Amino acid sequence: MRVLVCGGAGYVGSHTVRQLHRAGYEVVVLDNLIKGHIKAIGRTAFIHASINDKAAVARVFVEHQINAVMHFADSSRVGECVASPDIYCRNDVVGTLNLLEAMRKTKVNYFIFSSTAAVYGEPMEIPITENHATVPRNPYGSSKLAVESLLQWFSQAYGLMYTSLRYFNAAGADPAGDLGEDHEPETHLIARVLNTALGPGPGPEIKIFGTDHPTPDGTCIRDYVHVNDLADAHILALERLVSGGDAGIYNLGSGSGFSVRKVITTAEKVVGRPVKVVEDHRRPGDPAVLVASSAKAAKELGWKPKYDNLEQIIGTAWKWRQANPKGYAK
After folding, report:
1. Segments of the chain scoring below 50 in pLDDT
2. Residues forming the active site
């Protein structure tokens, strides 16, 4: 089976490409490289194009005999999406529509979508299940939810077999140490803490936004999932569809979560040095706890995270960062 991975040169996408190769799949990557890295995909077949280029997308399906699609091509910075909602709508909605139309014309029927917990908005219950109300609070979450709605309509009208995976905070790196997280600017907490620990001298500080949340240590609790576990979930979802399983939506999370302060202290233990921390006020609308229930994914996909230890997750990220202090630019 040949899988087209859109956004396959990005963080989660590139790790999924590697896991697909390990599982014996043929892979073709389509990426515009605005945020992805060509070095992250090795010798994988590569098309330098955007999903917004309708003609280029159509050619990929005709020329490469694609059997299934995994879609990671998006933008995910909250501040950016509020300032430029058109970018998010174009990437997520218009770009996805281009993919779906090309799939229809070439009779490709399996689609795995990289969605987000941002579709839920402010949590009303913890842990969050797939039945939780979807009331996104920013254009990023709204555009992802719009795509999920589009997938449901395509499934109903044309028999599209799809899975939408709503995951929380991707973290870590491939244990080999040659594949990892490299964003500019970096917004993910674990990567930022490790970048701070790596820098010469005192380095920049890590801000803790709020120490008076209703949590055991007063800091926000978030769900962190190792990037290879996320990649494995995409493969399990595809295998389920191919074997006749129904279309569906699944949360991917740890089921427990870790506080900001716990992440920092664990990172300090892993790197063997202190990290400069500055305490700040809460950010408006920042939920105290965001933790997913992955019971449905466990039951129906057979998904169970292999990296369920925070120190282990951070350890893989630190191995990558030490070997690649300048990221893929090295």
Report:
1. 78-79, 81, 202
2. 140
